[in-house]
Design goal:
It contains 4 helices and 3 strands; from the N terminus they run αβαβαβα. It is α/β, with parallel strands linked by helices. The longest helix has 13 residues.
Length: about 90
């Protein structure tokens, strides 16, 4: 039996993740996220695409970036703050 992750993705489809963080002040969040993906066998640019966005500390920019991300063909949207999902909705 194949792993569930292999069954969930059509052959040849590279998963796309949108990652929104509120400011550049906390790079540990993005570093930990990327490290976790590597530990699961994902290689950015090869087996997964990540659309990184940083709002530079402004709510207005975060809202605009959330709208930008939800318009992309993403498989997963990740937000490093509560405001990200609210803006995406």
């Amino acid at each position: 039996m194949a792993p569930l992750a292999a069954e969930a993705q059509p052959p040849g489809k590279i998963p796309r993740i949108g990652f929104l963080r509120p400011s550049p002040a906390a790079p540990c969040r993005t570093d930990a996220f990327a490290q976790g993906l590597r530990e699961l066998g994902y290689v950015e640019g090869h087996t997964i695409v990540i659309e990184w966005r940083c709002a530079d500390g402004t709510v207005e920019r975060q809202r605009a970036l959330a709208v930008e991300l939800v318009q992309l063909p993403l498989d997963v949207f990740v937000a490093a703050s509560v405001d990200g999902p609210l803006a995406a909705m």
